[in-house]
Amino acid sequence: MAGLLDGAGLLDGKALAARMQTELTEQVKTLQAQSGRVPGLAVLMVGDNPASAAYVRGKEKACERVGIASYGTHLPTDTSQAELARRIQALNQDDRVDGILVQLPLPDHLDSVALLNQIDPDKDADGLHPVNMGRLVRGETGLRSCTPAGVMRLLEEYAIAPQGKHAVVIGRSILVGKPLALMLLEANATVTIAHSHTPDLAAVARSADILVTAIGKTELVTADMVKPGAVVVDVGINRVTDANGKSRLVGDVKFDSVQEIAEWITPVPGGIGPMTVTMLLHNTVWSYRQRLAL
Ligand code: NAD
């Protein structure tokens, strides 16, 4: 148990992700021996957004580490909606592919919602298809969106049970905030979702036993917004440049001061980021097992 006087314990997503990837590597070896093929993940990327390119490279390297085959395609910025839809359909039909992911954001001329809806829900590695979102709402088994699933897995690892706790999620995106709120609800927390229109955010945040930030605003959450002894999960990833012109990543939470009063806290980087990639691998292996009935 982390002691309040010593500062918060670190929820070490990087270490857990490494352990999970080792387990997945073993699982893939065993399953490959049974089925005769490895799981496959296809990442479709359009355009030259450098952040997206770095994420895609990270995902492909992680696939390689655990023995998942990558069928990634990098398409030019001017790729049409029809061409991308055709690619998705082809991947839906491709038996080597168990997971399909469209790297967001897409260039403005493309309708990402319409494209995500064309992914076969059983290959929806990101868990963003309405069928999988619907399964989450109904509490049914299905592919769960990677970042919120990574948050839940990290809490579980540290035996932090949401049951009976007040969880506050700041952020209501389809990618993180909304599905995470539903997952916390499923785990029997009492859940509040706060967002950019929430009055007195500080008071709402301070009422949380478990506070999750998925905002995208550098160090918005300060120590006066956190209940002493709370669990703080920082999903935010913000790039800042310091006075020397050096750039680094920081979260939505002012780490140094909040870690003095919280019981547990995630670092940025090294918290939820590595868990997100690992849950993508987990989802791909899960789909593969479902599809091959292994
Ligand atoms: P988004 O922009 O879609 O949503 C941000 C949410 O924050 C919105 O719901 C908005 O209402 C809320 N918000 C904005 N300003 C606010 C304010 N001042 N007060 C209260 N609420 C406010 O972003 P997203 O896709 O959900 O991502 C959120 C952050 O998480 C980003 O920094 C993103 O880079 C990061 N992220 C990290 C991972 C990871 O693997 N760690 C994965 C996905 C997203």
TrEMBL record:
Keywords: Amino-acid biosynthesis, Histidine biosynthesis, Hydrolase, Methionine biosynthesis, Multifunctional enzyme, NADP, One-carbon metabolism, Oxidoreductase, Purine biosynthesis. NADP(+) binds at residues 171-173, 237. Coiled coil: none annotated. The keyword Hydrolase applies. One of its GO terms (molecular function) is methylenetetrahydrofolate dehydrogenase (NADP+) activity. It catalyses: (6R)-5,10-methylene-5,6,7,8-tetrahydrofolate + NADP(+) = (6R)-5,10-methenyltetrahydrofolate + NADPH; (6R)-5,10-methenyltetrahydrofolate + H2O = (6R)-10-formyltetrahydrofolate + H(+). Homodimer. Belongs to the tetrahydrofolate dehydrogenase/cyclohydrolase family. This is Bifunctional protein FolD. It comes from Drouetiella hepatica Uher 2000/2452.
